[in-house]
Amino acid sequence: xxxxxxxxxxxxLGGGALAGSGIDVSFDAPTRDWAARRNAPVVNxxxxxxxxxxxxxxxxxxxxxxxxxxxxxxxxxxxxxRLSYLVTAWTKTPQDEHRLLSAVxxxxxxxxxxxxxxxxxxxxxxxxxxxxxxxxxxxxxRSLAEIWSALGGELRPSLDLxxxxxxxxxxxxxAGPAVTEGATVRLRGPDSGPPQSSERSHRPHQxxxxxAAREAAxxxxxxxx
Length: 225
Description:
Blueprint: H1 2-15, E1 24-26, H2 32-37, E2 42-52, E3 62-65, E4 71-90, H3 94-109, E5 113-114, H4 121-125, E6 130-134, H5 144-151, E7 159-174, E8 183-188, E9 195-201, H6 204-219
Parallel strand pairs: 1-2
Antiparallel strand pairs: 2-4, 3-4, 4-7, 5-6, 6-7, 8-9
């Protein structure tokens, strides 16, 4: 699922901020060695944190429907995870890097929610939209200074990008066949004769009426004692 999120981000940036520029999108860790090896402008989108969004956790089961809108399977609700990316621009001058970051920000601000039709593979099969937040309030415990220190580099201007992703919870199981007929109630005479009536209904009040008639018929039977 994470690699599918990478595909979505690369397509969003490549079709927006970087369209026609020839600038690549990288997901490598922006370490000193990586920075020394690069020889062209690049936008780096580094995944530095993964954790569950517990506020979105749900209980119970969800129906899975076929093309006729009939429930054929049931599954547990997906678990949602926050994928945090550190987005930086790498060029020869700070001014060009700022322009790139500005273009990336303008692109992502218009895509607060990515619909299922634009999500690939198993991610799109869930039928759920994917929220995207950029340059928002940080909720992760690590500071940017700690992240850059761990990478062995100097602090640079960056955008904090958070993608909230649904992950399927397994297993799924088959649902029972759909109910196509109502309940059938048969009443017999006092001497266990042939049925007096037959009724088929989906309505609870009709079933209750039939039950009352059956009890009345039983009350009219002679006492065997």
